[in-house]
Structure formats: C-alpha cells, structure tokens
Specification:
Blueprint (H helix, E strand, L loop, with lengths): L10 E8 L4 E8 L4 H12 L8 E5 L4 E3 L6 H4 L7 E5 L1 E7 L4 E9 L4 H11 L8 E5 L9 H4 L5 E2 L18 E2 L5 E2 L3 E2 L6 E5 L2 H7 L7 H7 L19 E7 L13 H16 L7 H19 L14 H12 L5 H4 L13 E8 L11 E8 L2 E5 L10 E4 L4 E7 L4 E7 L6 E5 L2 H15 L9 H23 L20 H4 L4 H14 L7 H13 L7 E7 L6 E5 L3 E6 L6 E6 L3 E7 L4 E6 L2 E7 L4 H15 L10 H8 L4
Parallel strand pairs: 1-5, 6-14
Antiparallel strand pairs: 1-2, 3-4, 3-5, 6-7, 7-13, 8-14, 9-14, 10-11, 12-13, 15-16, 15-21, 16-17, 17-18, 19-20, 20-21, 22-23, 22-28, 23-24, 24-25, 26-27, 27-28
Length: 660
Amino acid sequence: MFHYVKPEMHQWALKINVPDASVSKTLTVSGESTVSEVTVKLVELLGNLKNWSRYSLWCTDKKTWLIAPRATLNTYGLDAGNKVIFTTTSKKLSIQLPDRTRLDLEKADFSNTLFSVVCSICRDLRVRHPEELSLLRCAKEEDLKDARNVTARRTFRVRKANKPKIKKETGSSQNSVNNTGFEVNGDTLSPHGSVANVTQLTPDEIDHIDIKEGKTMDERALMNAGWLDSSKSLMEQDVQEGDMLLLRFKYFAFLDLNKQRDESRINALYHQSVRSVLSEDVVPTEAECLEFAALQFAVEQAVRNPPKLARAISPGKDDLDSALADLEVSLGTNDPDLDKLNNSVLPNYNRELQANLKFKKPNRFFFFAKPKVHKFTFRDTTMSFYKDSAGSGPPDFVQDLKDCTIVPQVDIKKTKYILHIKPPGGKEYLVLFGDKEEFCTWTAACRLASKGKPISDSTYDSEIEIVKTMCNMQEHSQTLKLNRNKRAPVNTDDIKTEDFVSARIGRKYRPEQLANLILDAHNVLPRRDYTATELRVNYILKWERLMDFGMSYFIVKFDKSKKEELLGIARTHMVKIDLSPPHDVLKTWHWTSLQSWNVNWEVKKLTFNVDGDSHTFECMSSEIKIVHEYIGGYIFLTLRKETDTELDKEMFYKLTGGWQ
C-alpha cells in the first residue's frame, strides 16, 4: 500500500528591520506563510517593548503594505531578497489648507488609500462632499522647468530645526469657528483619532515652503502632475513622515453649496477661488477684477466687523421664501437680493432676437476695415446675419455659438459696446452694438449659447442682469471718480493692492490709484449688512461664471498629431487647445457624448470614444493615471444626486482607480 507523503515546504530566512526599536529580526518562513503568522512570530521575538497594534509590514523595494492577514508571502511575490520593515501605519503629516492654514496631523494613516485619508480630514474639518478635494504635492521652481522632474517626489519636508515658532490660534468657545473659518472643537481637531494643531502661516513661512503657482498654461499643466493617486496609500507614493501636502479642490463641480451647513467648505472654496483670480488661472476683464477685489474687501470688512444681528426678514417674506433663496444659491445661481434679479418667470420657448448690428470679420485689414450694418437674428443657440438690412432670403452667415469664446468689451466713456466671438478652431470676429440695452440682451444670449443653453432658458433674464451689473459698475465707477471728495474718508494705505488684484492689473495703475478704484467698486455693491459667508458665496458664484472656470490642463500628444497640444478637462467637457499662444480651442468633447474610455497601462496611452470617433493620446506632463482619474472623477460627480445620503466609495474607486 502506498502512502502519500506531503512534500516539505521550501523555507527561507526573511530579515525584518524594526526602525522604532533599532533592531532587526530574522524569521524562518515559507512562501505559504501568511502575513498574520509572520507578524505574530515577529511580535513574539520583539516582546513588550511597546504597543505594536498600529504596526504593519512594509516591503520597501516593492512599495507594498502587507496588511491582508490571510494573504501569503507568495501572494505578494516576496522572497529572501526583499527588504521588509515593521513600521507604524500612523505617522505625522502636515496639510496646508486652501486658506494657507497648516493642519498638523499627529497620526495620519499611511496605509489606507488617499481617498480615505481625504475623507477623514474633511469629516473632521466639517467639510461636506470630500470627493471634490484631493491632496497635491507642493510645486517648486525646478518642477516647472521639466515635466520629468514633476513626477518625482517633491514635497516640502517640515524640518523642526527650521520651522519658525508659530502662535497657535485658539477658539473662543466649543463648536465655534476660528479665524481660519474651519469649525473646530476648541482649538484642536482630531483627524484619524489623533490631536492636530491648526496654525496660520505667515508670509515668510509661506515663502519658506516655496509653493509656486503656474503663470502660463503649460506651467499649470506641469503643476497638475503633483496630484496624488486616490486609490493608493501615502506610503506607496513616496510620501514620508513630516512631509507637507496641499489640500485643494480638485474637481470644480460643487454639489449643494449651502450657507447654513457649509461654512467651512465655503471658506475653503472662497480662498482657493481668490488664489485662482489673483494668479490668473482664469482671466477676468479689468471691470470683473475690480468687482472681485470689491467683494474680497467686503469679506475682510465683514470679518473685522461682523453684523451684530441677523438680517431681519423683509415684510411678506416667510421661512419658505428664505428656504427657496438658499435653494437658489445651492443650485448655483446668485442671491436674488444682492444681484437684484427679477422674479422668476416661465421661459419663452418662441423667444427670438432681431436687430440691425455692425459686423466686423477678420481680413487682411482687420483693424482698419469699417464695420458694415447687417440684420442679425438669434434663435436657440444660433446667430445668423444677412448682408442687407431687410433680411430677405437665406442668411449669409450662420454660427452655432456652442463652445464659442465670448468676450464682452465695454467702454462707457466712449460709448463702445463690442462683443468678441471666437469659434473653436476659427478666427475671431466682432459684433458692435449701438446702446447698452441692446448689448446686454445679445451678450446674455451669446453667453448662454456658449454653455449650450438656448435663449429660451429660464436663466436668460438673470444673465441679462449680470451683464447689466458689469456695465453699471463702470458707470458708477466714473461717477464716483468725479465725486470722490464726497466719499467717506478711508485710508488707502491700509489696502495692499497686490492682495486684491493680479499682477497684470497692478502694473497698469499706481497703488494709490488702484486702492481708490477698489473702494469705488466696493461702494457700488448693495448697501446691506451681509455676513462674511454670504459674501464668500457670491464671490464663488461670480468666479463660476468666468469663461475658463474650472479648467485643468495637461500637455498631451495625440497619435495622429505631430506636435504636442494642451488638453483641458472641466466639469462638463474636455477640450483640445493649441499649445502655442493665443491657445486656440481646436476641439471640444462633452461628457454627455462620451461613450467609453480606457488606458493601455503598458504604453501609458488613453483612448476615448465620442460619437463613434476614437481618439488616443499620451500625456507628456504627468502620469496618464492622473488624466484617467480626472475623467472618471467628473463622470462620478455627474452621477451624484442631492438625495444621496452616503458617498458611494466603491463607484468612485471603480471610475477613478483603473487597473495597472
């Protein structure tokens, strides 16, 4: 009779280093040894030197946590040649918040996924919808010179020997809001069950950290290489204990922005929007810059001198009306009182514009040619014009304004009302208007059409009011200049203009002139006691209306193209842009038309299908995984509903994680 004899397992020596105990232990293991068995043997050899409950095995050369207790060493592909350490999963980490506050985490989880870490931080900061945020490495000067350097580890190490002494900001009461705008329990937070200090960085400390902001579109594309992978742990991405990372809004699709429940979230988003305007990630007009500066100045005034009492409800306005006003803000529209919007009306589905306007098209003598008068009509998202003023026969020119760039140009003093229209990949042409009323109605229609909304949309009337506000700002500004001596005396030396406007606007005026312009714009704002949160919300809503809002850039090379181009990813669409100035838009793809996308991880190329057409590109400025995560992230955000009570993490990982 034959008896089966189980062959002996091949055993080998596994050396494990324990840095916190300054010792190394060698265990005899086999490929079938489980992680839990190896951990128990190691702890028995180490003894009761300390509590090992927060420790796990980390393979340094494979950059992998051995945390699945039932997984074998063969599952992780380990052998005697691998380097393994036994280290704590909770480490110190510094997070710079959007308002430049530093959050010092004592026990950040370096073994969990980045998305879980962000969710924990946002939960303790009382910031809802953590899927809109992520962690970013600090960009340095050398990172903006070469795309290959950006993907390397370049976080700022907080060295205690060089860290200046910082005065800790203490809260005045429990469950209060400190001067940073984040809700805290007293003066400390408890991310991941640990104690963390919230401190405000001084300008010198910010310069010491050496955080850079991209000045050109290609530099901004290089900075996007610093986003961390949401599906990997901090340790797997070469983040070390004591490093500093930036917590920023990554996706610019904000769900249910509520003034009552989102004070911390609004504060963080406001500070990020201010940096976006000042660094010209978006490029507003000069009038819009002054309006942004006026709102920012109003926020600072409201923080210094908050309203003593809440605003009384106006006669005839009950709690239901107030709730509807908050709902209007959460849906992304303006405060009706602040922007003086009309009462909502039913949309006119047969609405059409007709007028005799001057048209100027590009030609050899573009700047010298005299504009000609034509009859224009506007219906849905299409503008047409006829060569004769009678408008007989078929139109001579038809332009669908969807995805077109619309730039208004107003000069009240010279009575100039001009609209610059630039189709994607086409040449710019001008439409000239005779008066302000005509300019506002047509500009509002064109702005809506560029976003894919027809003129019959219910927001058309409110869009007209927005354009009128821009024109009125210039009128009031000129009036205030004539009557500046009647204005209440304000010390303009207290206004640091570089903190309110971009360098482009700052170079056009002397500081005292610019300070007066900011005060003039501030005087134009409605005279009402608004809280700082309400003013921040209106700043954010105005920021969202800018043309290039929420665009994240990457340098890519399509398979059928011979040169590199820019790929812009936004909340509703994706665009291909010429890398050379003036950065013409070559092609636009909307998420609603996206059929599929996938990544070939071997060659690191992404392929997406839109309306039956396939497009493939490789990313030259960052890892292709970052682009893939951006696309999946925005798709995930479009699937959210306000009625959702819990975040679907599984779906988020499915759309953004990919397979490598």
